[in-house]
Amino acid sequence: MVLYEYPFNESVRTLLRLEHLFDRLGQLLPRDAAVDHHFALVTMFEIIEVASRSDLKADLLKELDRHKAQFIAYRSNPQVSQDALDGVIHRIDHAYNALTQQVGKAGQSLAGNEWLTSVRSRISIPGGTCEFDLPAYYTWQQHDAASRRADLLGWVGTLAPWAEALQLLLHLVRDAGVPHKVVSQGGQFQQSLPQGRSYQLLRMRIAASEGLVPEITGHRLLVSVRLMRPDAEGRLRLAPVDVPFELTLCT
Description:
This protein has 251 residues and is of the alpha+beta class. Helices cover 47% and strands 18% of the residues. It contains eight helices and eight strands.
């Protein structure tokens, strides 16, 4: 099964982009090749760029507060495990406190590192980090893998509170949805959304064997899925098929 996700608002869209980048970073850091550590730096700079939105920190703290209030309301419910509830609230408090201790935007503590600044200014230029352009960076790439990794972990560690907060929030959002089975009609599916209820994320699972590419659109009243299939030239065309898939709407 292949999982696709569609955000209903800009805040969740930003969180998904950051999650994607942190996942990539997590795969690159354990590797030993200098080229992998180069792209780990590229990814770290991309994270800082995406997370530079001035209201991101306030949005994260607000959402953590909202989820905490929802969970506290379950304390009097005898059908809810109080130990599990306390565990979730503790995780929210830990993420909240760690994020409040961060000064300014993500990566701001690295702004005074002249070496990183020089690399960042050249790394987006095609071929801009050649040894004759950035000899200091080229020298760093010749260090042993453990030394490079230690440097990277030190720099990336400044972003850890942001990663913890967004990963926890996305986990809570995803857990709030209940999956159900639906079937497309002629390659298309539509579902009306109840008024007065706000959704943050759509999740869709479809069999990889179908070879279909979903085009998902949605707003507060309606979600629509068109199942596409690439032709011989790679252009996507509507596939007029009736196919079952799993749909989850998360609040």
